[in-house]
Amino acid sequence: MDLDRRARARLLLRTTPGAVDYLFEEVRHLAGDITRRPDGLTLDWDGPLRPLADVRYFSGAAVVLDDVEARAGDPDGVFAALDAPVRFRVAPVGEERWDLRDLLSEKFGWVNDAGDWSVNVERDEREGLIAEIGPLFYPRRFGELTRAPASTTPVVAAVMVRLAKIEPGQTVVDPCCGAGTLLVTAGQMAEPGELLGFDLMDRWVEAARENLDARRVPCVVARGDAAALPLPDGSVDRLVANLPFGKRVGSHAGNTRLYPALLREVRRVLRGKGRAVLLTEDKRLFRESVQRTHGLRVVKEIEFTRPGAHPSAYVVTSRRS
Ligand SMILES: C[S@@+](CC[C@H](N)C(=O)[O-])C[C@H]1O[C@@H](n2cnc3c(N)ncnc32)[C@H](O)[C@@H]1O
């Protein structure tokens, strides 16, 4: 896709509820007529797509097909920026599915290819027909990571890194790093001086190392226990972690031991003005554990919603800061 060519369209940007404000903040100077919805934004875009493609707070983008022929035939539209011929599929959108397929291939020369498409026509509850743009999906813009079963959603990772407010040169630690999504995102969005990751399981340490090496993000990853970190007191500026929720990873009973121990470690290793951004769905236990950890407090909570899960990212700081 040519991201430097003019491309105009009404776009739907989809994100995770909880990330909409961050997405809005990032695009409000770049686009016109922005409308919020719980899972994203619609907006008017007119210009090269590169500045939009660089934004991490949306998972996918689609052209609103209010007038299919006008949009498909627009020489300055988003489809004209795609590699030719445009490869597409039409999802089961209703009766017009096959007419749409025939129109797009016969009138516009697009190639119907369900296995390798850059345009997916589907139906959105609010906008009606939309065309998802394959090259604007998050993994196509920022690269696919090897994932652990409970890996952090990339958009959530981006919001967590933003909440961490990492300053250049700071020491950043993920004590439960899994396949390293947060470490990669922190290394790419900020300029940490030192990036360190720990996980109890060798296979995730290995996966994190692969993900980091593939993106040339300098980081030390090692087997380690978040309840007994191999780090000196007061040596860490920022801590980010997607904790075991007690669903796919760990258990609530396990968390009743892990969370208090991990929070004691957070208090011990953080410097005075340090901050930790910790994601969990075992929320009551987490809040109670923070309250019982003398010296720590929650200063912000952002809830993310996705099918079957409502985790929150908690920003935790020292009471003195
Ligand atoms: C929700 S996953 C993290 C996912 C990770 N952010 C990613 O994107 O792949 C939680 C991780 O914590 C690890 N873990 C559980 N208990 C731990 C402990 N006591 N110390 C270190 N890691 C632990 C698990 O092995 C798992 O990889």
UniProtKB/TrEMBL annotation:
Annotated Ribosomal RNA large subunit methyltransferase K/L-like methyltransferase domain ranges read 149-303
UniProt record, GO biological process: tRNA methylation
Q: Where are the transmembrane segments?
A: none
Q: Which InterPro entries match?
A: RlmKL-like_Mtase, SAM-dependent_MTases_sf
Q: Name one Pfam family in it.
A: UPF0020
Q: Which domain of life is it from?
A: Bacteria
The UniProt entry, under SUPFAM superfamilies, shows:
S-adenosyl-L-methionine-dependent methyltransferases
Q: What is this protein called?
A: Ribosomal RNA large subunit methyltransferase K/L-like methyltransferase domain-containing protein
**Taxonomic source organism:** Actinorhabdospora filicis
